[in-house]
Amino acid sequence: MFLPKRLFEQEKEPEVPTPPTIDNLEAVAAQNELNSLLKREDISINAVPSNEEKVLTVFTHGYGSSKWVWIDPYFGSHGWLRDHRNDPPLRSYGWHSKPPPSHMYSPFSISVSPLVFPEGVFNTLKRNGQEVLAYSQRDPFGDIDISAKELEILLNGVKKIYGERKIILVGHSRGGICLRRYLDLNTNPDIKKVITLATPHLGSNFMNFRVIKQPIIKILNDTNFKRFWDITGTRKAHDINHEQLATNSKYLFDLKDREKSPEIEYIVTGGTCPTFANFYTWSMVKRKVSKEIVNRIFHRESKIVKKKKVTEVKKEETKNYQWVAYPNKFLSLFEKRVIPELNNGDGVISLRSALLSTAIRKYKFNKNHEEIAICGQTKKLLLKEIKLTQKET
Predict the structure, then answer these.
(1) What residue spans in the chain does CATH classification 3.40.50.1820 cover?
(2) Residue 306: C-alpha distances to residues 238, 290, 298, 303, 311 (Å)
(3) Looking at the domain that runs over 5-81+116-278+332-391, which CATH code has it been given?
(4) Burial readout 31-67 (b: 16 or more C-beta within 10 A, e: otherwise)
(5) Which of 37, 158, 195, 346 is most exposed by smallest CB count within 10 Å?
(6) Which stretches of 48-101 are assigned E, i.e. beta strand?
(7) Strands 361-365 and 321-329
């Protein structure tokens, strides 16, 4: 089997995520105090208590994810971030009577897109002088009400240690629904904006399936599988709740956060790139050609007369084909189906579901579901919205 050389030249995969560096001693002390107050160890925050005029941006991750999607995206995205947009173009193997490479056993090979290791939005905002907080939900697969209560406890702790702050809530995927449920249950005048990234406000068809919960929970907590969603090994899956995020879910329909807090600005984003898995199959496509064209190409092996009549053409030469290898997206078969999430969405959430109708500003990015949480457009959007909030009295 032919394997592209670049497959072996990829950067070595890191084994553990890299925590954010916080240089300010006052910020480090406050972070430790917040974790101690809430009896946690996973809260990362670079805010300085004395900077009460600064906006604090709080990040909430999505289904089965963790705070690392904001800090170290390679681990937070389960290692699925790959450079699928810059894969090799078509490759011609020329004219052969057998599938090239003719000395190999198989006429095709698998090419995996190179890994990418982008800077997380947490570190980007921190580097630009902003104050940010990220944490890992204790049960990212379970009841959204439990995650909303967890956020309530977190924000109450933030207020005790950091005082009155303008707060921007940012949620990716399921995290955006957690934010909305929190605001449905609580009134918090400190919240100025809610920014949702690829959030299924109208649900997702991928959440309509039924699962046998106990076996799935056991698999999620298995040591070999757990590293894909909990690299640090500090959490445990207690429940599986996908019904709340299903299409036409009553849970989503009953959310009244916008009615209860009309003064809060909602900014939403959705993706339009369904390529999520980032695998490419190189298939050999054959195209038969006429005897005359074959003889023109292989003139050294053929006898051509002046009147362009072909004579004494070897029988095996008529079997020559042009073999071309082309990149075939892993999800291309599914993309052809009329599924909103794949036909007009980010591969997991449809654009219609992500762009909440009552939002004050809506953005479409040509990114897949995971890329939206870490892409450059999102970073620029967040910096812009933070600065706008900072200017407001």
Answers:
(1) 5-81+116-278+332-391
(2) 82, 18, 16, 10, 11
(3) 3.40.50.1820
(4) beebbeebebebbbbbbbeebeebbbbbbbbbbbbbb
(5) 37
(6) 56-60, 91-96
(7) unpaired
